[in-house]
Amino acid sequence: MLRLADFLDSINLRLAMVIRWFALLMLLIQFGIVLGRYVFGINSIAVQESVLYLHASLFMLAAGYTLLVDKHVRVDIFYAAASPTTKRRIDIIGHLILLLPAMCALAWWSWPSVRNSWKILEGPMAVGGIEAVFLLKTLIPAFCLLVSIQSVAILLRLLAGKGVQ
């Protein structure tokens, strides 16, 4: 069970090693946009949209990693003062009753929009923009899959007694 959890962790870990560079790329592109616009008087809608695409990709694809390293938002009303056993129970219930069903529901309800977007290869949001809105919408099921993978990995560890200390 722990080997499977390690394998599932590695998916988000490896993806995060690539995705983290999106932040630097966004910074450089945004700097280029500002420089181009205010120094050289040139502008490109597609280049501006690339920052949006990178930003969306960074946050949607790194969400599983954020869960892996336990840096996600946690409502800490009862959890902070709870014993390790209670924390373990809260985590198991949270993953089984809240997180995994929410990811399934989000994937289920977003899929028709993603499918239709791919069917027509949905074009740019603005004239002159990136002709790949279908890729942007694909981030939604990818997000659901990556968070679900990480949730299962955490659940496996919790059920094996290797979770909260």
UniProtKB/TrEMBL annotation:
Domain of life, source organism: Bacteria
Residue ranges annotated for the Tripartite ATP-independent periplasmic transporters DctQ component domain, each copy included: 26-160
Subcellular location: Cell inner membrane
Keywords on record: Cell inner membrane, Cell membrane, Membrane, Transmembrane, Transmembrane helix, Transport
Main location: membrane
Positions of transmembrane segments: 21-40, 52-69, 90-111
InterPro entries: DctQ (IPR055348), TRAP_DctQ (IPR007387)
Membrane topology of the entry: Multi-pass membrane protein
PANTHER family: 2,3-DIKETO-L-GULONATE TRAP TRANSPORTER SMALL PERMEASE PROTEIN YIAM (PTHR35011), SLL1102 PROTEIN (PTHR35011:SF4)
Annotated family: Belongs to the TRAP transporter small permease family.
Stated role: Part of the tripartite ATP-independent periplasmic (TRAP) transport system.
Subunit: The complex comprises the extracytoplasmic solute receptor protein and the two transmembrane proteins.
UniProt protein name: TRAP transporter small permease protein
